[in-house]
């Protein structure tokens, strides 16, 4: 009885994961009729004291095509896949949070550092998998060392 | 026979501080393996081999669990093995987990040795003058768990006759009984220590520990080895890719001196054993 329960749980766990090899993962996934621009920038981390980073732009104005109803996260994920850029996320559904991009993680440059995103220059106050994209949107992922104040998104209490 | 256990507590505590300091703060697999070997070899000399093999299997399981779980939660690293739900599982995270697990198991084994060597007499000798209350609390807590297991077993066997088929009830009964008993024990111990004037100001402590030339010699040797170990520039970088510290002469000396440092108890024990054997054969 115990064994069958454990077996069922294991099968359930494994079926909810999708396991891919690196070659499968990095297949080009450009699809859809709408386009958006994505850039990833960590200028603040380069300027941070004792920083080993030299290149600020990780991705520069990359043109990405997406389907209708796709979110910022899906477009970002596919852009990273196509350019073989490392990223790590946590959470699921609407509340996906990007912990690190290109080996640069949250808290690497002080307690107030991390990744934020803006669409057309505005910083939406929702998770990146809850914001639906429109045609021609410009997404920017920016690294902050000061809770958004140094990239133009000051935290209001 | 003069074994490692009977050396002066001042030397013993400083030896353990040296070894544990490096084991805990250097996150380097070479130090960790040599420390592990040192602790294991001493345990093999002192404890029964059957018990050790059993505990090794148990700690191997802990080691595997930690090593496998780390890559599932940490996705940093450049060498990708495969992807789970778009998060990478990397070689670096796996190795980091293995080193973390090795550190945990190594420190556990050194504390096993610590438990074998330090009885309550030594702890009272060390801390009795500085802070008698802490010394008593430490010695009581160190005794608590082995004592608890022992009494739990005996109570449980007697409960087996009363409650044959109710396993849960039996365990609960004996558990509450042992808890009550150990609480009572603690109160009685502190009361009786008070009655004997344990906390009086000008109380002197009897001790049978002398600081012999052997202790001084060993203390100096282990201090020198500790300093030689600390001098080495041997910090590993794990993320996003490995950066090995170069094998310069300084680092080699550092690795070697920690190896010798962690084998001091083993070497001492073996040396005394050989002396003992020869002195017997002469008679």
Can you put this structure into words, describing what you see?
With 157 residues, chain A is α+β, with helices and mostly antiparallel strands. Helices cover 22% and strands 28% of the residues of chain A. Chain A has a 4-stranded mixed beta sheet. Chain A has a 3-stranded antiparallel beta sheet with strand order 4-5-6, with no helix packed on it. The mean pLDDT of chain A is 87. With 283 residues, chain B is mainly alpha-helical. Chain B folds into 2 domains: 4-117 and 219-282, no CATH class; 130-195, no CATH class. Chain B has helices at 9-25, 29-46, 49-73, 91-117, 120-127, 132-162, 167-195, 213-231, 249-262, 264-282, and strands at 80-84, 87-90. Chain B has a two-stranded antiparallel sheet with strand order 1-2. The longest helix of chain B is centred in the middle third of the chain and has 31 residues, at 132-162. Chain B is globular and about 65 Å long. The mean pLDDT of chain B is 89. Classes of the chains: A alpha+beta (157), B mainly alpha (283). The interface between A and B is medium-sized, with 15 and 13 residues.
Q: Give the overall pLDDT of chain A as a whole number.
A: 87
Rg over C-alpha atoms of chain A, rounded to the nearest angstrom: 18 Å
Low-pLDDT regions of chain B: none
User: What's the story with the biggest beta sheet of chain A?
Assistant: 4 strands, mixed
Number of contiguous helices of chain A: 4
What is the spatial order of strands in the main beta sheet of chain B?
A: 1-2
User: Structural class given helices, strands, pairing of chain A?
Assistant: alpha+beta
**How big is the Rg of chain B?**
24 Å
Beta-strand level of the residues of chain B, as a percent range? Answer: under 5%
Number of strands of chain A: 8
Shape, principal axes of CA atoms of chain B: globular
Query: Which chains have the largest interface?
Result: A-B, 15 and 13 residues
Counted beta strands of chain B: 2
In CATH, the topology of chain A is named Ferric Hydroxamate Uptake Protein, Chain A, domain 1
The string of secondary-structure elements of chain A, in order, is: HEHEHEHEEEEE
Whole-number count of domains of chain A:
1
Structural classification of chain B: mainly alpha
Instruction: State the order of secondary-structure elements of chain B, H for helix, E for strand.
Output: HHHEEHHHHHHH
Q: What portion of residues of chain A belong to β-strands?
A: 25-35%
State the strand order across the main sheet of chain A.
Answer: 3-2-8-7
Averaging pLDDT over every residue of chain B, what do you get?
Answer: 89
């Amino acid at each position: 009885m115990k064994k069958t329960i454990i077996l069922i749980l294991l099968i359930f766990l494994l079926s909810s994961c999708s396991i891919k090899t690196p070659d499968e993962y990095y297949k080009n996934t450009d699809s859809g009729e709408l386009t958006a621009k994505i850039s990833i920038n960590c200028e603040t981390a380069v300027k941070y004291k004792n920083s080993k980073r030299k290149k600020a732009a990780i991705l520069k104005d990359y043109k990405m095509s997406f389907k209708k109803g796709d979110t910022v996260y899906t477009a970002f994920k596919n852009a990273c896949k196509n350019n073989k850029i490392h990223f790590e996320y946590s959470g699921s559904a609407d509340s996906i949070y990007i912990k690190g991009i290109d080996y640069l993680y949250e808290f690497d440059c002080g307690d107030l550092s991390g990744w934020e995103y803006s669409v057309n220059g505005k910083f939406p106050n929702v998770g990146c998998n809850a914001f639906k994209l429109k045609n021609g949107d410009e997404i920017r992922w920016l690294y902050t060392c000061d809770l958004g104040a140094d990239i133009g998104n000051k935290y209001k209490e | 026979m003069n074994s490692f256990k009977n050396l002066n507590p001042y030397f013993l505590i400083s030896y353990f501080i040296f070894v544990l300091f490096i084991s805990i703060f250097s996150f380097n697999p070479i130090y960790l393996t040599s420390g592990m070997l040192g602790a294991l070899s001493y345990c093999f000399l002192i404890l029964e081999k059957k018990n050790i093999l059993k505990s090794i299997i148990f700690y191997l399981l802990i080691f595997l669990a930690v090593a496998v779980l780390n890559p599932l939660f940490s996705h940093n690293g450049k060498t990708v093995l495969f992807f789970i739900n778009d998060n990478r599982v990397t070689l670096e995270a796996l190795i980091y987990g293995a080193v973390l697990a090795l550190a945990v198991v190594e420190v556990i084994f050194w504390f096993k040795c610590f438990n074998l060597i330090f009885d309550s007499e030594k702890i009272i000798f060390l801390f009795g003058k500085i802070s008698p209350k802490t010394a008593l609390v430490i010695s009581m807590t160190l005794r608590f768990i082995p004592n608890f297991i022992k009494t739990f077993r005996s109570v449980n066997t007697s409960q087996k006759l009363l409650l044959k088929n109710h396993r849960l009830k039996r365990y609960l009964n004996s558990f509450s009984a042992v808890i009550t008993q150990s609480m009572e024990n603690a109160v009685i111990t502190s009361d009786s220590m008070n009655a004997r004037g344990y906390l009086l100001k000008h109380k002197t402590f009897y001790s049978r520990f002398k600081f012999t030339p052997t202790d001084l010699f060993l203390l100096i040797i282990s201090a020198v080895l500790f300093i030689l170990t600390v001098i080495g520039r041997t910090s590993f970088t794990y993320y996003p890719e490995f950066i090995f510290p170069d094998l310069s002469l300084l680092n080699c000396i550092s690795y070697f001196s920690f190896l010798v440092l962690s084998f001091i108890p083993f070497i001492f024990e073996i040396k005394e054993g050989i002396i003992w054997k020869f002195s017997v054969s002469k008679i």
